[in-house]
UniProtKB/TrEMBL annotation:
PANTHER family for this protein: EF-HAND DOMAIN-CONTAINING PROTEIN D, EF-HAND DOMAIN-CONTAINING PROTEIN D2
Gene assigned in the entry: Efhd2
Residue ranges constituting the EF-hand domain according to the UniProt record: 1-26, 27-62
Domain of life: Eukaryota
Signal peptide interval: none
Keywords: Calcium, Coiled coil, Metal-binding, Repeat
Name under which the protein is recorded: EFHD2 protein
Molecular function as annotated in GO: calcium ion binding
Phylogenetic lineage: Eukaryota, Metazoa, Chordata, Craniata, Vertebrata
InterPro entries: EF-hand-dom_pair, EF_hand_dom, EFHD1/2
């Protein structure tokens, strides 16, 4: 929210540029675009809150390159309890837990979708086999 100048719930390229400059890790235009592209799940060229949290998830999993802008952002954006207080840290970690929960729920939805597609493909295969059986009965 602090860097969402447009108050639209997203961080666009210019807002990300300003944020990185204020954090002391300015990036090139191309670097900023690559940062967004790496976590932009819906391909709208903006970062939603969920996509922003994905940066921290990837950082915790070691999926970010050491020299990438996202790694710098994750490192520079960590909560310092001595300055933010326990309440700030609490909301930060609650948001991280929620992001992890959302990600696992998202993975479960994908698995369920894949299982449903497999089931439909199997049913189609069985219907085709049954049709061929009936068809062969008429050919005799």
């Amino acid at each position: 929210r602090r860097y969402d100048a447009g108050k639209d719930g997203f961080i666009d390229l210019m807002e990300l540029k300003l944020m990185m400059e204020k954090l002391g890790a300015p990036q090139t235009h191309l670097g900023l675009k690559n940062m967004i592209k790496e976590v932009d799940e819906d391909l709208d060229s903006k970062l939603s809150f969920r996509e922003f949290l994905l940066i921290f998830r990837k950082a915790a999993a070691g999926e970010l390159q050491e020299d990438s802008g996202l790694h710098a952002l994750a490192r520079l954006s960590e909560i310092d309890v001595s300055t933010e207080g326990v309440k700030g840290a609490k909301s930060f970690f609650e948001a991280k837990v929620q992001a992890i929960h959302d990600a696992s729920r998202f993975e479960e939805e994908i698995k369920a979708e894949q299982e449903e597609k497999k089931k439909q493909a199997e049913e189609l295969k069985q219907r085709k086999a049954a049709f061929k059986e009936l068809q062969s009965a008429f050919k005799q």
